[in-house]
Specification:
The longest helix is centred in the first third of the chain and has 14 residues, at 19-32. The radius of gyration is 19 Å and the shape is elongated. The chain has a single domain, classed as Roll (Pnp Oxidase, Chain A). Strands 1, 2, 3, 4, 5, 6, 7, 8 and 9 form a nine-stranded mixed beta sheet that branches. It is α+β, with helices and mostly antiparallel strands. The chain is built from four helices and nine strands, in the order E-H-E-E-E-E-H-E-E-H-E-H-E. The two termini are 35 Å apart.
Length: 178
């Protein structure tokens, strides 16, 4: 059976490296607003996952989170730094998966930089709560699925394709490597 991509009249693969990869990561992560942070990634076993929102994505592509020192995710990262981040910005596009290495610190300056007053829900003593830690995820590889020209064009192409029985798809996908 042929892949749907063979029916595609235009190229829909583009691997991104360096600055272009960083821009795509920032774009898709921003559209998603949050992600699933996965730990305990072992082939053939269930991994641990929980929703998280990156507080910042820096110019090197690192993703920064605040977390509690006594959380399961911190314990799992201490045991194995390999993590996966899963982003979904909409029902039809803006998908991103990143694999990387996580590190945990208690950097007070970084906590202050990332702090948002609504976090007091989890850190009741405020930004000086002794349980606050910083998780830094440094991506090592990833993959994205997006649209080339936005959802309006993608929708029109899908509708035309359905009407004429052709594959008109505005999707684009590929690897992201910093």
């Amino acid at each position: 059976m042929d892949s749907i991509n063979k029916n595609q009249p235009e190229d829909n693969f583009e691997n991104l490296v360096g600055k272009e990869a960083l821009e795509k990561i920032k774009e898709l992560a921003d559209k998603a607003k949050g992600c699933f942070l996965c730990t305990k990634i072992v082939t053939g076993e269930a991994f641990a996952t929980r929703p998280m929102a990156p507080e910042k994505i820096d110019d090197a592509g690192n993703l920064w989170f605040l977390s509690s020192s006594d959380s399961n995710k911190n314990k799992e990262i201490e045991a194995d730094a390999a993590v996966q981040l899963l982003f979904q910005g909409s029902s039809y596009s803006n998908f991103l998966t990143l694999y990387g290495k996580a590190t945990i610190s208690r950097d007070k300056e970084k906590i202050k930089e990332l702090w948002d007053p609504t976090m007091k829900t989890w850190f009741t003593e405020g930004e000086d709560d002794p349980r606050i830690t910083v998780i830094k995820v440094t991506p090592t590889e990833g993959y994205y699925w997006d649209t080339k020209h936005g959802m309006a064009v993608a929708t029109v192409k899908r509708l035309i394709g359905a009407a004429v029985g052709q594959t008109y798809d505005d999707s684009i996908e590929g690897e992201v490597k910093l």
